[in-house]
């Protein structure tokens, strides 16, 4: 693994390190925050950025930098959980559909088509609206709208892999279907699924922030970037930093994961590897 990383292009290593740094900072946000992100102070309401409060304070006198750090832990790790669940569920459905084909394939793909018939954000808003506000319900809403993409990718890759010689050899050697699926096919189709998962980080981050912004995701006063933007946009004229600071941080984090995903896709693409050689 270390050799793979050291031999990778500089851009890949750069964005991989930046993504890892973001995860570490989010994980230890409670220790890194200079103030309590939920402590209010009437004397510090909407204070401009200064040496004491680098990104200023909000309409309750709370330190914005501390809330951004706390919101990063909520936003990023909630997104990672969404992708883990949606990716696992979708990949499993795609594997079963592509391997067994026939009636199972028809039923599973028709269910997938039903979910894909609606725009993702519209379906997420509808599900979150029915379930009610809150982080858990927002995550469930995004899982419902995301798993279908993994199912499609896994199915098409499984259909192709199923005809490969090594799968025929595994069958002849007496391997069970479960071992073929999870021991042979899945490791060989994992590349596109991993790349999709990394590229989905920014998409899910925007989706979670959008639901929170609309009031059907993370609820105020919880620290989450979308909720902070929603709360801060009311004071754009007198305290623009309250909305612009979390917006800028979210955009920067999304760009890092997008660029990391692009570099990972190029690194795993055989055609790109041949060009580099």
Topology diagram in text:
Elements: H1 2-7, H2 10-27, H3 29-32, H4 64-100, H5 102-116, H6 120-131, H7 135-162, H8 165-172, H9 177-213, H10 225-232, H11 241-268, H12 270-276
Helix pairs in contact: 2-4, 2-11, 4-5, 4-7, 4-9, 4-11, 5-7, 6-7, 7-9, 8-9, 9-10, 9-11, 10-11
Short characterization:
This protein has 277 residues and is an all-alpha fold. It contains twelve helices and no strands.
Notes on the structure:
- By secondary structure, the protein is mainly alpha-helical.
- It contains 12 helices and no strands.
- Helix 4 runs parallel beside helix 7, helix 5 crosses helix 7 and helix 6 crosses helix 7.
- The chain is elongated.
- It starts with a helix and ends with a helix.
- The model has no long low-confidence stretch (mean pLDDT 87).
């Amino acid at each position: 693994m270390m050799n793979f990383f050291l031999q990778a292009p500089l851009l890949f290593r750069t964005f991989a390190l930046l993504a890892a740094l973001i995860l570490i900072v989010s994980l230890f946000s409670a220790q890194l925050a200079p103030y309590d992100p939920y402590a209010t102070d009437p004397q510090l309401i909407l204070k401009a950025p200064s040496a004491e409060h680098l990104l200023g304070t909000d309409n309750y006198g709370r330190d914005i930098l501390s809330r951004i750090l706390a919101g990063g832990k909520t936003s990023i790790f909630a997104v990672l959980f969404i992708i883990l669940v949606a990716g696992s569920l979708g990949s499993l459905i795609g594997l079963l559909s592509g391997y067994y084909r026939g009636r199972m394939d028809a039923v599973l793909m028709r269910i997938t088509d039903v979910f894909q018939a609606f725009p993702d954000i519209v379906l997420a808003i509808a599900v979150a609206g029915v379930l009610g506000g809150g982080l858990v319900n927002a995550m469930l809403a995004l899982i419902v709208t995301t798993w279908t993409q993994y199912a499609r990718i896994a199915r098409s890759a499984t259909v192709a892999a199923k005809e490969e010689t090594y799968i025929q050899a595994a069958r002849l050697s007496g391997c069970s279907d479960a071992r073929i699926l999870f021991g042979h096919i899945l490791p060989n189709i994992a590349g596109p699924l991993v790349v999709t998962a990394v590229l989905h980080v920014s998409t899910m981050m925007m989706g979670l922030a959008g639901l929170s912004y609309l009031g059907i995701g993370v609820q105020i006063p919880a620290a989450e970037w979308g909720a902070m933007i929603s709360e801060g946009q009311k004071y754009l004229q007198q305290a623009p930093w309250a909305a612009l600071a979390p917006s800028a941080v979210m955009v920067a984090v999304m760009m890092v994961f997008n660029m990391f995903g692009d570099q990972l896709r190029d690194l795993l693409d055989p055609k790109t590897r041949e060009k580099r050689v």
